[in-house]
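Hi Y.,

Following your request, here is the sequence exactly as I used it, all 65 residues.
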Amino acid sequence: MPLVRSLGDGLWEVRSSLTGGKVARVIFTEEHGAMVLLHGFIKKTKKTPKQDLDLALKRKKGGGA
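Below is the corresponding structure, written out as C-alpha cells. Let me know if you'd prefer a different format.
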C-alpha cells in the first residue's frame, strides 16, 4: 500500500507505522499548496472508519471539531 492515498472528496490519508505493530493515520487536504491536517487516529481495522472520515470532512468544510 502506498504511504499516501486518496480517500475522495479532497481527502487524503497518510500512514505511519508505530512501535508495537500499531498503525497511525492522518487524514489531510491540500489548500494553496499546503497540507492541512484534519484528523489523526490509530487504525484498528482494515477499512478507515466512517466516523473518522466524516469528522475529517466536517473539519475540511469548516465545521471544527
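The longest helix spans residues 50-60.

Thanks again,
Q.
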